[in-house]
Amino acid sequence: MSAEIPIRTILYLEDVQTIKQDDIDGVLWKRRLPGFVPVALGVPCSDDDLERRTVSSGGHLAEDIGNSLRDLGFDDDEAIQWIAQDADALASQFAKIVGTDELRVRTEIVRSDACRKFHRDAVRARMICTYIGVGTEYCLASEEPEQAAIHCAPTGSPLFLKGKAWGDDQTAVLLHRSPPIEDKGAPRLVVVIDEASVYD
After folding, report:
1. Using an 8 Å Cβ cutoff, are 87 and 105 in contact?
2. Most buried among 18, 62, 82, 179, by the most CB within 10 A?
3. What is the SS3 assignment for 38?
């Protein structure tokens, strides 16, 4: 963890549980995806942002994510299975962080500058993983966005973030946003995991 950015970089997924420490605002698992995943998937042709949302728990999550990817137009079974199983492992660790396995999963293809302003989510915690395209950007809340040092989660590296509802005494230190991509023609495939109860 750097002195400036309260994000801990980990080598093993299980270490994501260190996000519970008071001095950490987020955890980044830096890794590389198997090369065949983005190549095999590609991105289905469309001009719009597309998404699928499901509420999943336990052993159904991998199946639900696989179905969501197919609904979005992906058709490579091996790559779909890899992402579905990977997201299931991420969800398992996320469930331990928030104390529930009832999770809301958003699988989306992003082509616009959605969520382009730096912000902090109105949730206890959130997991974001970009499987294709540019990863989530983040910076210190204490800096002006125009002058802030902007960092970017590498493609395939899951980012676990505390939100506004983490605790009453939780001070916003870290902000994040979707990277601006609209003018670059570089779509993203993103999986986002929250507690299902956030949406009740």
Report:
1. yes
2. 179
3. helix
Distance CA 56, CA 78 (A): 22
d(CA 136, CA 148): 15
- Write down the residue that tokens 């509420």 correspond to: 55
Rounded CA separation 182/129 (Å): 19
**111 and 58 Cβ atoms separated by less than 8 Å:** no
Quote the CA–CA distance of 78 and 37 in Å, as a whole number: 8
Q: Strand 26-29: give its sheet, edge to edge.
A: 7-10, 26-29, 159-162, 125-132, 188-195, 103-110, 50-56
The residue with tokens 């969800």 is 91
Q: Which residues of the chain have pLDDT under 70?
A: 1-4, 44-48, 58-59, 143-147, 168-172, 198-200
Secondary structure class of 71 (helix, strand, coil) = helix
Instruction: Supply 199's token pair.
Output: 């949406």
Segment 86-116, tens digit of pLDDT = 999 999 999 999 999 899 999 999 988 777 7
Report yes or no: 143 and 197 within 8 Å, Cβ to Cβ: no
Question: Which residue's structure tokens are 């500058």?
Answer: 113
Rounded to whole angstroms, how far apart are CA atoms 118 and 105?
Answer: 22
Report the predicted TM-score, pTM, of the whole model to 2 decimal places.
Answer: 0.90
142 touches 101 (CB < 8 A): no
Structure tokens, 116: 């382009």
3-state secondary structure at position 193: strand
